Amino acid sequence: SVALPRRWGIQGVTRSMSKNSVITKVLEALIVLCSICIVGLMVLLVASRYVGVSLMGILEIVMVFAIWLYMLGAILASKNNTHLEVDLLALSLKGTKALAYHKIYVSLVTVAVTSLFSYLAYKMIMWGINLPQSTPALSIPLTLPSSAILVAALACLAFALRDLYFSIISRTRS
Questions:
Q1: Left, alpha or beta for 18 (phi > 0: left; psi -120 to 50: alpha)?
Q2: Radius of gyration of the chain (CA)
Q3: 168 SS3 class
Q4: What is the number of other CB atoms lying within 10 angstroms of the CB of residue 155?
Q5: Does residue 134 sit in helix, strand or coil?
Q6: How far apart are the first and last CA of the chain?
Q7: What letter does residue 5 receive in the DSSP assignment?
Q8: In 40, 62, 83, 137, which residue has its Cα 20 to 30 A from 94's Cα atom?
Q9: Are the C-beta atoms of residues 34 and 69 closer than 8 Å to each other?
Q10: Is 44 helix (H, G, I), strand (E, B) or coil?
Q11: Are 62 and 42 in contact (CB under 8 A)?
């Protein structure tokens, strides 16, 4: 068993992983807010078309909220370890040692992929800043929805690093 120094704040890290943490509550509130905005704007769009009024740009606003909704959902899934996972190999492994090494390997691959994704998202934002583009009707800068991808990539990378850390710690403890 490895005794971790108290200054590392492991208790705080495990508390932030719980379903009732402040991070979870903020993410859930933002997800609900985005969902309400999407539904409200779509109802407004349909109602306005029903009465013969054309509201230009509503779909552009919906697109921004939708991208943020998807990325916030990805962050929440990554935080709670409820993202899509193929575990056929893990099911066939026997013994805790093999499972521990498998978990470390999966965590390393996840860190590598999310690092690449973060880098590409950063490059996309930089490209958008150097060659600014905007939506046609409302001139919403496309860096706004693109920033959701960067935020999600960095958050997923942080949670992947957390998972790698805990998989290594659990391996040394077993």
A1: beta
A2: 21
A3: helix
A4: 21
A5: strand
A6: 7
A7: P
A8: 83
A9: yes
A10: helix
A11: yes
pLDDT in tens, 117-158: 999 999 999 999 999 999 999 999 999 999 999 999 999 999
Closest CA to 105 of 169, 153, 172, 167: 167
Q: Which amino acid is at 26?
A: V
- pLDDT at residue 174 in the model: 60
Question: Residue 115 contacts by C-beta under 8 Å, 6 or more apart in sequence?
Answer: 157
What is the pLDDT, as a whole number, of residue 17? Answer: 58
Q: How does the average pLDDT of the chain come out, rounded?
A: 88
> Residue 81 — pLDDT band, cuts 50, 70, 90?
confident
Number of residues in the chain: 174
How far apart CA 67 and CA 132 sit, in angstroms, is 19
**Angle made by CA atoms 164, 170, 174, in degrees to the nearest 5:** 145
